[in-house]
Amino acid sequence: MTIRLSFVKKTFALLLCLSLFLSVSAQWKWEQVKPGVWKGTYGTPESYSLLSVAGIKPLDEGLSKLPCTTDVPTIISGITGKQIDGKTYLSLPLAKGEQIYGFGLNFQTIRQRGKILDLHVDHYGGKDNGRTHAPVPFYISSNGYGVLINSARYLRVYIGSGSRKDSPNAPAPRDRNTDKNWSSRPYSDAISLVVPAPGIEIYLFAGPTPMDAIRRYNLFCGGGTLPPRWGLGFTQRTHRLYNAQQVLQEVDEFEKKGYPLDFIGLEPGWQSKSYPCTFEWDATRFPDPKAFVRTMLDKQVRINLWTNPYVSPESSIYNAINPLSGSHTVWCGIVPDFACQQAREIWGNKLKAEHIEIGVSGYKVDEVDGYDYYLWPDAATFPSNISAEQLRQTYGLWVEKITHDLYKAQNRRTYGLVRASNAGGVSFPYVIYNDYYSHQDFITALINSGFCGTLWTPEVRSSKTGEEWLRRFQSVVFSPMAMINAWSSGTKPWTFPEVAEQVKEYALLRMQMMPYWYTTFANYHFNGTPPFYAMDLILSDQESKKMSSSDIKEKSLDNNPYLEAVQKEIKDQYMAGESLLVAPMFKGQESRTVILPQGNWYDFYTGEYAGNGEVITVKPGLDKIPVFVRDGAIIPMMEARLHAPKAGEKVNLIIRHYGQKDGTFLLYDDDGETFNYENGAYSWREIKVTRQKNGKMKGSIAKPEKGKPDTVGNVTWKFMTQAQ
Ligand code: GAL
Fold this sequence. Notes:
By secondary structure, the chain is α+β, with helices and mostly antiparallel strands. The protein is built from 17 helices and 33 strands. The strands form seven sheets. Strands 20-19-18-15-14-13-21 form a seven-stranded parallel β-sheet. A six-stranded antiparallel β-sheet has the order 1-2-12-9-8-5. α6 links the parallel β14 (263-266) and β15. Bound molecules: beta-D-galactopyranose. The site of beta-D-galactopyranose has 9 residues, from loops.
């Protein structure tokens, strides 16, 4: 027994020494890298990271326009790190009452404090557990700062879970026998995680508001994507086995029936083989791809091609890419190692020669997210020696980057779909989608996309009833991509005759609103403001400051439904651009409540006053999705049309003004198709509405600077509220 004990002691001592030896106490190195952006390096971070893959180029002009700040967020002094066993143990402080948003594209929750998430690129499996299409390790605090953990590893984050012995705010122990306030999850004052690497790079983004922190992150990553104008029109994805004739017929039907259409998506059947893919046209279904694409372009309809990146043995690039692919296959196709430049080139050249150069306008890159049972396992190896884990976390970023760069080289903008992304992908022209199809959760995802520099579409596929069809359609019109995805259902906008007219009305409204949408995306690009975002981001500017604890005490929550409502997670209404509040209706709903923040809000359709800092109940009928407009807002619109304006085409504007206040709006303009805006070929024109002495509103629009783009034709003013 004695012998055994001393053996245990000796082994323990040895292990202790070993662990002391392995636990290196590295130093944090902090530097300000941009106005309001600080980089912290601890130990030796890996060179392969999310930002290195995305190849971000910060948009300095935008960053310099944000509220000037030289104050580093105060959490910096509380950030700790420790290296043990080649891993980095990180802890970032949380204050009492602080709320945390972000950590990727979640579908059911907005506020993340208290959660434990495994950030892992994956298809969404119905639970907010971190496995999602864009598990972006970026978070925003209600205290007005943001943090990015720039690691391409799977990260388990404890967002305010677990209490440290040395916590300055450690919770007091409670006696479960006697104390009814005992909690199984006592207060925690930190976000903690283990990065499986001997160092880490993190970035701090200053506010002052949470929205400013998001803007800084977006601009640091290059600014949000600016889609071509046509990308903001309507798009239909055809049945997966349609041939050229059927697609043509469908396009003609849209035209004949008067439904708008800017781009049409071809699903797997355009390829000679799919799952794995050849990236080559199917000669039976599409005998003359060049002529087909040309005919479509002549009809002002662009072509978007579905693909996944897994290469079929029958593809002409198979042999060339084989030595540059991973150890495992996906559906028996090889997996290009996109961390190798040569693999990127071979794949990219194929796309360029066979699609882009004949006029194809974009891609839908599927299956780059996951599902463990068919993707490569973590034990797969790749010629670049980048781990399977890191490739999984960045595969979406790679396909976005490769295709974006191909279009950029031709000075053409693209806008497409992708099923995975990650931090740094802000400026890639891609919208995320999936197969999950819960209308409610799609709206929550749309809200969360604004926290993590991604775009999301609540696509419409099929429905059991006309009512559901219309409800889903109304929502997708107020999203980054207005789309029906009929790859399996074969549905068309007019599939439900009982609501076909209403669907048309909303598809045309999408087109009428194009000047508003386009400027909203220009704000995403130049100013970093996400086009679709959470109510919390405007509440935090207004109500949360007013909602000091004394206010709350005064107005007991029980008799103040408004304060009670804004304290809950708001995940079924959102902001679209700077002025619109959208409150979707879901199937079976006849009425719903809408939280209207402080300030007067007006009905989008009628201009009627709707409320101010209160919870209202609306019963809009099936024909309408409730949308509200801020006081003084200006919404530039245009005539209803079937296709986006061509480059340089003059467009007559119908400018709406809502409410009682004077308003200003900066209208963005450029050619809508190229990257010439990066060299200054754009204009911002001030639209102003002011109340005259006689009480009437009057609008004016400034001329663009000489030599700058000007596509504004005649202007008609609509004073929505005055007209009552
Ligand atoms: C799915 C994708 C669908 C559709 C389909 C085609 O993975 O989410 O939108 O493209 O593949 O097979």
